[in-house]
Specification:
Strand order of the largest sheet: 1-2-4-3
Number of helices: 3
Shape: elongated
Number of strands: 4
Mean pLDDT: 89
Radius of gyration: 13 Å
Structural class: alpha+beta
Order of helices and strands: EEHHEEH
Low-confidence stretches: none
Strand content: 15-25%
Helix content: 40-55%
Distance between the termini: 33 Å
Amino acid sequence: MVIFVIKGNRKLYDIQTIKNVLKVPKSKVQRLLNKQDAEIVKYKNLHLYPERTLFNLMELILIEKLDRIDD
């Protein structure tokens, strides 16, 4: 897991790390990120996303998986 820390102790995550944490395919992560309209920080040819975005995606994935179980 790769975590980038910038000024103000903000934690940023790249797509590969988000994919590993959520255990979903990269294409699904990219689709969800496009829908989120999240803040993007570009650093050394990487697109980094704030920790808040990761938590939002975790919430969406969890709700989706719970809905599948209920059906």
